[in-house]
Amino acid sequence: MTDGTTINHGGVENVTGGVTDGTTINHGGVENVLSGGTASGVAFKGPDATLNLATPLGLEGTVYTWKVGDVIDFLKTNVTSVHEKGNKLTVTFDGNQTATYKLSQQQHDTQFQLQPDGHGGTELTLVPIVGVGHAHHDVAGHLV
């Protein structure tokens, strides 16, 4: 088990067993949670931070500060839907299985989008809501 790991640009952390708790993925960093591993509490500090999951159940707890450009790639998993309600995000995969994550400080005026990752899996990204007629804000609400 590792606690409080920070992954910087170009860095990669592979979680092959056990639990990593409180990981921060900075711009260009990648965390790979492989079969048998679990990430508990992940903070995106991107943009362009990536969390690769062998299974949606490899992530538990809260996802912090998700912004446009950050990606969760469900490796070799067909995610069929994503539903956000309040601070909860539920993904449905492999027919009717679900995984639910808590969201904290998600970027405003965004929505979730699913797309194939090109390798048999599904990418979950945060994209701006088209037609919102105001400036881009960061997670704290400051103009960027």
Question: What does this protein structure show overall?
Answer:
With 144 residues, this protein is mainly beta. The chain has one domain. The chain is 0% helix and 55% strand. The protein has no helices and 14 strands. The strands form 2 sheets. Strands 1, 2, 4, 6, 8, 10, 11 and 12 form an 8-stranded mixed β-sheet that branches. A hairpin with a 2-residue loop joins β10 and β11. It is globular and about 40 Å long.
Features:
144 residues, mainly beta, 8-stranded mixed β-sheet, globular, disordered C terminus
What would you call the quaternary organization?
A: single chain
Name the poorly predicted regions. Answer: 139-144
Please state roughly what percent of the residues sit in beta strands, choosing from under 5%, 5-15%, 15-25%, 25-35%, 35-45% or over 45%.
over 45%
Helix content: under 10%
**Count of distinct strands:** 14
Spatial extent as radius of gyration: 14 Å
How many domains comprise the coordinates?
1
Task: Report the span from N to C terminus.
Answer: 36 Å
